[in-house]
Amino acid sequence: MAIYPLVLPNYACRRLIGWAAYAVMRGGRCGSLEHYALGGIRPCIKAAAVCETPRIAVAIHSSGELGIQLATMLHMSSVLPNLSYAADAHYHHLVDDVIVGGKLAYRDGAIEVPVGPGLGVQLDREKLGLYSELFKSMGGFQYDRDPEQPGWFALVPNDR
Predict the structure, then answer these.
(1) pTM of the entire structure?
(2) Is 51 helix (H, G, I), strand (E, B) or coil?
(3) In angstroms, rounded to a whole number, what is the distance separating the alpha carbons of residues 3 and 19?
C-alpha cells in the first residue's frame, strides 16, 4: 500500500487521514511518503504522525532523484520514528549528478545524511547547465510509461 496523492500542503493531512483509513481497511502495513508529491518535508512528517496512530509503518519512495532530492529524502528519513523500511532509491542507477563533488557515496549499503548548510549539498552550476541543455535536446525520460502499452497510465489505486 502506498500513497501518491498529488496535493497541496494545506490538504495533505486531510487526504492522508482518509488514506490511512483506506490502508487499514485494505490491510495495509506500510505507507510510502513522497516529499515531492506532498509538498516537502513538513507535510511528510505530519503524514508519518497520522500513520503512527493506526500503526502503519512508513517508507520513503524514490522517483529517480538527483543528489539534491536525495539529500532531502535523507534528512526527512532521519527524523521519522516510524520509518521501518529502508528507503527506496534509484540513485545507484545514475552515472553522474548535478551536485558539487559528484554522486553521494554508498557506504555499507547506505548513504549518510549530508552535513553542512541547508541540505548539505551544493549545486554544480556547470553540470546543471550541461544537463539542462541535454534535457532540452532529448526530452525527459518517461520512466512511468510502458512502451508495450502506449495509451496506458498508472492509476493508484488501480481498483478505482
Answers:
(1) 0.71
(2) helix
(3) 7
